[in-house]
Amino acid sequence: MMERTGWRYLCSAGGAGLALLCGAALAQEPAPSTADPPYPSSAAIRQAMVEQGQRLEAMRQQLEAQSAQIETLRKVLAAQQARYQTLRRAVGMDTLAGQRAAGVGAPRSSARNTAAISADDSEAAPGAVSARTQAIGQAPASNDKPPEVAPIFDQPGVLTPRRRWVLEPSYQFGYSSNDRVTLVGYTVIPAILIGLIDVRQVRTTTQTAALAMRYGLTNRLELELRVPYVHNHTDTVSREIFTGAAQDNVFTAGGHGIGDVEATARYQFNDGGADRAYYIGWLRFKSRTGRDPFEVVTDCVTRCVQNTTGTGLPLQTPTGSGFYSLQPGVTWLLPSDPVVFFGNLSYLHNFARHNVSRTVLLGGKEAIGTIAVGDVVDASIGVGLALNEKASISFGYDQSFVGSTHQNGKTVAGSTRSVLGTLLLGGAYRLNDKRTVNFTLGVGVTRDTPDATLTIRVPTTY
């Protein structure tokens, strides 16, 4: 009995202790706050979703409008690119990438690639720009080269692309004739001459085969070396004075060999464009590697002493000028749809030679002294027109002003200033992307100019 009473007491005490512990724990829990906001109602949630949907719809409509505007701009850009290519073909610009050499591309290509020299890092080549359509959205290639035209002048307007070679074989045929009547005496009455008459007709044929090599150091700078081989033939028909001859005599002379080798550097100064001119400066040095007039033997057997004996003519014709020359100049090209205007302006200085002498037949050396031939100012202008993507033609005029010759500081007797004028017609046809055939016909319009010259060039790019 006592044991049951003890166990009851212990159980009651343990239960009371657990009750006290649970009450203390409950007393420490915070009471729920009456300030917490209630959850949003379903109506408010639906209203917020509606407003968010409206904002998303407005943004979608704005994106659609912007996409439509971008598509319109893409179409405008495509139309402008198509019109640009049409204009380029109209002025003959073709294939600006692999045909940039003076003469490569349709007539210096179909109006010479908008070529002659871009910034060093952008390469636009002289040749005709082919009408390739660029992908919409893609920036067009750099094109700051002068347009190609059928070359009719010696200096090309389009330079060789960077690290590219151009080999240009050429052939030139020239013919000139000159009639001279010299009256030595005095007149008693008009139409009656007492004295002597010297009549001469000089006909000269010149053929020159040359190889020009051009290399593009940069897209704005090229170097050229030209090596000519010259063949001359001269017929002089003369009735000699002081001989009483009743018939004409023919004196023939000829010669052939290497001519004067030339080296030229060209540089494009600016980036032109439609109705903006391109300017290419150049400097040419001419050697005297050819046989000069003082090296050939002169016939003085029958008219050299006081002009009373011999012909006084060379037994061989020279193949060079006999003087070193330096010629700075500038070439300009102005595209103006549908043609291209171009021209050159240059000044040729001939360096004087000292202690010059000539060789006389059976007479040894004859001292002449110091010889300074006249300098030459040259100006030319032309216009080029593309016929299609492969062919073009050019018209132009070239005029040179030649100074008189001096010997030992004095003007040589009979030497005067002269004017040389030539009317030029040229054409070009592009055979392929690397080769073009160019021809030029020149007709002399002054008495001192060769009557006719025909030049054919075939520039090839490597």
How is this structure best described in words?
It is a single chain. By secondary structure, the protein is of the alpha+beta class. It folds into two domains: about 50-80; about 165-460, Porin, CATH 2.40.160. Helices cover about 15% and strands about 40% of the residues. It contains two helices and 19 strands. It has helices spanning about 1-30, 40-90; strands spanning about 165-185, 195-215, 220-240, 250-260, 260-270, 280-285, 295-300, 325-335, 340-350, 355-360, 365-370, 375-385, 390-400, 405, 410, 420-430, 435-445, 450-455, 460. The strands form two sheets. The chain has a twelve-stranded antiparallel barrel.
Please tag this protein with its features.
single chain, 462 residues, alpha+beta, Porin, 2 domains, five-stranded mixed beta sheet, 2 helices, 42% strand
Break the fold down into its secondary structure elements and pairings.
Blueprint: H1 2-28, H2 42-90, E1 165-187, E2 193-216, E3 221-239, E4 249-258, E5 262-268, E6 278-286, E7 297-298, E8 325-336, E9 339-350, E10 353-360, E11 364-372, E12 376-386, E13 391-402, E14 406-407, E15 410-411, E16 418-430, E17 436-444, E18 452-457, E19 460-461
Parallel strand pairs: 7-10
Antiparallel strand pairs: 1-2, 1-18, 1-19, 2-3, 3-4, 3-5, 5-6, 6-8, 8-9, 9-12, 10-11, 11-14, 12-13, 13-16, 14-15, 16-17, 17-18
